[in-house]
């Protein structure tokens, strides 16, 4: 909503930066106060040319190394989120084709040569292309009932095993309490 309003009045739209996920993962700091304080420091640093000159002297290899670590943390966070899901074959296909479409547009932008200009503007971003492909496939590909049944059966087996372990632990604790009670007598 804010981005739409910003575009109407002629300013740049608001966007979140995925780099923040990597920085928060590395530092563990997500406080708004720290971000506000750092913003004030950045504004002050922008007003002092000597600080800008100091920043320019940072070697590109150092910036590249920091970038690799930061973006690797973003990838790790994404993989961590995906690993919590119980993927079906359909889900894996949707993710794989969405990522492939996004990477294709990013690596080989000439693949959009024969598209109309209006579509090239939209599909020029790998994130947009990958997201649209994934959303489209999610709507088009029907849910396989056998995958849903297998998923439900797996969950039931895991629940049953967990329940048995909990029950066994409770029985062991009960027996231990009885033996301790007997020893006290």
UniProtKB/TrEMBL annotation:
Q: What is this protein called?
A: Uric acid transporter UacT
A cellular component term from Gene Ontology for this protein is:
plasma membrane
Q: How does it sit in the membrane?
A: Multi-pass membrane protein
A molecular function annotated in GO for this UniProt entry is: xanthine transmembrane transporter activity
Q: What subcellular locations does the record give?
A: Cell membrane
Q: Tell me where it mainly resides.
A: membrane
Which domain of life does the protein's organism represent? Bacteria
Give the family this protein belongs to, as stated in its UniProt record: Belongs to the nucleobase:cation symporter-2 (NCS2) (TC 2.A.40) family.
Alphabetical list of InterPro entries matching this protein: NCS2, Xan_ur_permease
**PANTHER family hit by this protein:** PURINE PERMEASE C1399.01C-RELATED, URIC ACID TRANSPORTER UACT
Q: Which UniProt keywords apply?
A: Cell membrane, Membrane, Transmembrane, Transmembrane helix, Transport
Which segments cross the bilayer?
A: 34-56, 62-82, 94-115, 121-141
Pfam entry (one): Xan_ur_permease
């Amino acid at each position: 909503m804010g981005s739409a309003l910003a575009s109407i009045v002629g300013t740049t739209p608001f966007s979140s930066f995925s780099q923040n996920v990597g920085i928060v993962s590395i530092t563990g700091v997500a406080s708004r106060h720290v971000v506000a304080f750092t913003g004030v420091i950045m504004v002050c640093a922008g007003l002092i040319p000597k600080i800008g000159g100091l920043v320019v002297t940072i070697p590109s290899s150092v910036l590249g190394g920091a970038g690799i670590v930061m973006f690797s943390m973003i990838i790790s966070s994404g993989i961590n989120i995906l690993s919590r899901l119980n993927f079906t074959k359909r889900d894996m296909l949707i993710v794989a084709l969405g990522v492939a479409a996004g990477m294709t547009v990013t690596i080989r932008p000439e693949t959009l040569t024969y598209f109309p200009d209006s579509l090239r503007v939209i599909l020029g971003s790998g994130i947009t292309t990958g997201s649209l492909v994934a959303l489209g496939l999610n709507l088009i590909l029907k849910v396989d009932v056998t995958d849903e049944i297998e998923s439900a059966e797996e969950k039931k087996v895991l629940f049953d095993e967990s329940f048995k372990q909990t029950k066994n632990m409770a029985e062991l604790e009960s027996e231990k309490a009885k033996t301790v009670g007997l020893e006290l007598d």
